[in-house]
Specification:
Blueprint (H helix, E strand, L loop, with lengths): L17 H14 L4 H15 L1 H8 L3 H7 L8 H10 L12
Helix pairs in contact: 1-2, 3-5
């Protein structure tokens, strides 16, 4: 019987441009079901793809605090979310929810 080897999947390796990053964030927001920590983790994936140090500088945060905020272990403040989204070059938009 052949031995199958696996490697850890890292979505950040597959987010190569802003359009893919925006699509990933949108899909995660749809799947989050109100879980802010899940959205924070998705933003962390995108930040790692773009470069965490650069995103931290652009957001005006320390790299360490950005890692903590986007770890998915807790829900960061909305202020932090807005700073990170802006640093990533993305926008949050609102639309009417489907009933």
């Amino acid at each position: 019987m052949a031995i199958t080897t696996t490697t850890r999947y890292d979505v950040a390796e597959h987010l190569r441009n802003p359009h893919e990053m925006a699509a990933y964030l949108e899909a995660c927001m749809e799947a989050a079901d109100g879980d802010a920590a899940f959205i924070a983790k998705a933003l962390g994936d995108i930040a790692r793809a773009k470069g965490m140090a650069q995103v931290a500088r652009d957001a005006g945060l320390s790299r360490e605090s950005l890692y903590k905020a986007l770890s998915g272990d807790r829900a960061p403040s909305f202020d932090t979310i807005l700073k990170v989204v802006g640093a990533l070059g993305l926008e949050l938009r609102a639309q009417v929810a489907n009933p």
